Each structure stands twice: as C-alpha cells, then as structure tokens.
Amino acid sequence: MRASRRLGFTLIELLVVIAIIAILAAILFPVFAKAREKARQASCLSNLNQIGKAALMYASDYEGFLSRAASSASNIGQNVLGEAVPNRGYAEAYYWQTVWLSYVKNSQVFFCPSGDQNFRNAPRYVNTVGGLPIREIWGHYGFNYEGICKTRAPWSTSKNDNRNADTMQSPATTYLVMDSWGVCPMVDGSDNPLRFFGSGPLGGGDDVGIGLNLPPGDQRRGDRHNDMANVAYADGHGKAVKVSDLFVQIPSGLYSPFCNFTMAAGTWAP
Questions:
Q1: Higher pLDDT residue, 9 or 50?
Q2: Which residues contact 59 (CB under 8 A, 6 or more apart)?
Q3: Residue 258 maps to a domain
Q4: How far apart, in whole angstroms, are the C-alpha atoms of residue 28 and residue 34?
Q5: Which of 89, 147, 158, 214 lies in disulfide reach of 218, CB 3.0 to 4.6 Å?
Q6: pLDDT band at 131; cut points 50, 70, 90
Q7: Helix, strand, coil share of the chain (percent; to 5)
Q8: For residue 119, what is the DSSP state?
Q9: Of all helices (H) and strands (E), which one includes residue 255?
Q10: What is the Cα Rg of the chain in Å?
Q11: What backbone phi and psi angles, to 5 degrees, belong to 55?
C-alpha cells in the first residue's frame, strides 16, 4: 500500500501569505482608526450641542445674557467636578462651565472623547495658590470669553454687548465653545489674537488657544478630529470646521468673523 504524502505550505507560500496580511493590515488599520475617530467626533459634537443648548437656556433665564460680565471682583466657588477653586477675578474665563452646569446636569459633557486624558497634569493646566495646586482647566473645550464676556480687546470691532443672545451681531458665525487646548482660547494678558492659535513657543504666553503649535495628532490640539475642530455657535447650532476655513484674506491680513478680529499679515500662516 502506497503511503499518503503529507501536504504543507512551502516557505515561500507562507511568506506570501504573511505579506498579503501585512498589506491588508496597513490598508485597513488607518481606515478603522478614522472610523473610530469619526465616532468620537460625533460624540464630541453631541457634547457641544448640549453645552450650546445649556447656554441658551441660561440666557433665557437671565434676560438674554449668555454669561456673566467680566469682572475683576468675580468669584465662582467650585468647578464642575465639585472641587473648590480660588477666589479670583475674572473667574468667568476659567470656570464658565459652572455657570451652565445646572442646565446640562452632567459634568462629563465638558470632556472630549478624543481629548488629552492626562491634561490635568500637563504644563499650563496646573497653577498654585498659597502653595496648593489649583487646576484651572478641567475640560477639553474653550469658551469665547473675549468675544462674549467683554469687548475691551483692541482687535474687537463689536459695538453691541456680545454677551446678549438678543443683540449679538452674528450669532450664527460667532463661536461659543469649541475644541481647544485652553479653557478660553483667547484669554490672558494683552488679549493677543495669537493666543487663539497657540502660535507661541510652549511655556510662553501665546502657547494656548487651539494649540496649532503642538505636533499634528496631539490630543490637546483643537483640530484633533481628523484635522477638524468641533464648534458650538452662539445661535445654538454646532458643526465641525477646518481651522483654515475660519478666515478671509483682506489687505491688512486675515479677518475672522468667527472670532471678530483681524490678524496682521505675516503673523500666522494657516
């Protein structure tokens, strides 16, 4: 009786199969990653829509005002996680979530699923008061504090009180809250519009905002959703935008109806 011959793959055949699997993995993994990010982007946009609706409900209870006025004597006692915060001026800039929290009733809406999960230990997120750490930023979204709470910024062209949803000039194109690195993309010091982009070196005064100075793919960047940033607008709608779509080229530089300022030519390149 003739013995049966044992069949098997040759080395070359095995290498070919492995190569095919590797090629398929290289093709499919980025597709899966983008699909996963798309789902996270949708979840993030849902957060911002809830925040936007909360702001409008707050406004309906406070004669149209979306937030408190900027005040050097302001004091908000705790953040949305129930942690005590220092008695400080201009608290609206850092603790704006607290003002709207009762209208969303869930602090988790202030966290983007694609945001940096360790952001509370990152530079510029931790401040110290009296030797104790005070975390001034505990979410992944930035509030248009400069445009809505005050108009003292030298680049602002607003003539009305932008805090009021009833008198705001262009609520459908003015951002309320968006994906960002800083709690208020344009807050601080001289109110330099460059802060909005995070155009300065890390550790400096202009390094916050939407973090375009950070490496592509960094979870602290505002455009962390496949190079798109989610935005809640002052009229209550939300959508994903490209940062480069937020500006119009004019002779004196780049004008942004989104932030209501003109950036001089040469200061930033989209």
A1: 50
A2: 65, 66, 164, 165
A3: no
A4: 10
A5: 214
A6: low
A7: 30, 15, 55
A8: G
A9: strand 253-256
A10: 23
A11: -65, -40
Which three-class secondary structure state does DSSP give residue 195?
helix
Greatest distance between any 2 Cα atoms in the chain: 102
Q: CA nearest 74: which of 98, 103, 50, 43?
A: 98
Token digits of residue 137: 């930023």
> What mean pLDDT value characterizes the chain?
77
pLDDT value, residue 258: 66
For the chain, percent of residues with pLDDT exceeding 70 = 70
Q: Please state, in angstroms and as integers, the Cα–Cα distance from residue 78 to each residue in 38, 88, 129, 244, 252, following that order.
A: 33, 12, 15, 36, 43
Domain membership flag for residue 174: yes
Give a yes or no: residue 212 inside a domain.
yes
Tokens for 69, please give them.
């006025």
The three-class DSSP label of residue 3 is coil
The domain in which residue 78 lies consists of 14-241
What is the amino acid identity at position 188? D
The pTM of the whole model exceeds 0.85 = no
pLDDT tens sequence across 199-255? 777 766 667 788 888 888 888 889 999 999 999 998 889 999 987 777 777 776 667
Contact 248, 257 (CB under 8 A): yes
d(CA 206, CA 186): 9
Q: Are 125 and 132 in contact (CB under 8 A)?
A: no
| Two tokens, residue 63 | 């004669």
Q: Is 53 a residue whose pLDDT tops 90?
A: yes
Residues 243 and 247: their CA atoms lie apart, in Å, by 8
Domain count within the chain: 1
Separation CA 95–CA 76 (nearest Å): 7
CA-wise closest residue to 218 among 73, 79, 81, 116: 116
Considering the domain boundaries, does residue 2 fall inside one?
no
